[in-house]
Amino acid sequence: MTTIAVLGAGKIGEALLAGLLQAGRSVQELLFTERHPERAAELTARYGVAGVEVDEAAKRADVLVVAVKPQDIDPVLAELAPVVDSASLVVSLCAGLPTALYERRLPAGVPVVRVMPNTPMVVGEAMSAVSPGTHATPEHVALVTDLLSAVGQVIEVPESQQDAVTALSGSGPAYFFYLVEAMIDAGILLGLPRAVAEKLIVQSAVGAAKMLAEGTEHPVILREAVTSPAGTTINAIRELEKHGVRAALLDAIEAARDRSVELGKAHEEE
Question: Mind naming one GO cellular-component term on file for this protein (predicted)?
Fold first, then answer.
């Protein structure tokens, strides 16, 4: 039996716990850590999983999933360093933090796998990208892939691509939410009740995503299929191009990538 401890039970941490339970893991295989006692009690009541301290999690678990915010990583690593060894597998879900950081702060030989998930994990539709560190084996990557498959899809990428992944899919849901928010506002501007506009846009987004996920046609082909000559859609597309929406998206995702790089550099040793 592989024991898994989730260090940090925020939205992503809780979603992973819930997904693993739904996939058939028993409560005896799972642990979590949480700084706030009331939150820990709430999660234990909801899922039956034990909340423990970081040092106990490290002693009892085979896999330690670090799901804290990047700025909170230093105290977690300080607590882990005295109690982990090469038999432990550390899985980092922290945006921007390289495997080299863990390898410097933890005992020699500890295997680390870096993961960039995203928030659709809460509905079992995450997109997670995994990258092995220096001491992680293909078996470690396979184990992490199996765990994360309980809450969505998984791909393996070189760690050099992780900052780009963070900007694209890690932050990606926020871009879609932003677009949907703007389209709902447009519906209200055109005279539709908010509830009607929201229903129209959300279901359109669901349907469009399903066409992309289940079909084989390129997004350009799908867009052109909606774009009739001299019709409503081409007039809308003209306005989007006029206002530089495509260029703005490119710049936004590049800025997110740059911030991911900064987060990693903030933890580089002098």
Answer: cytoplasm
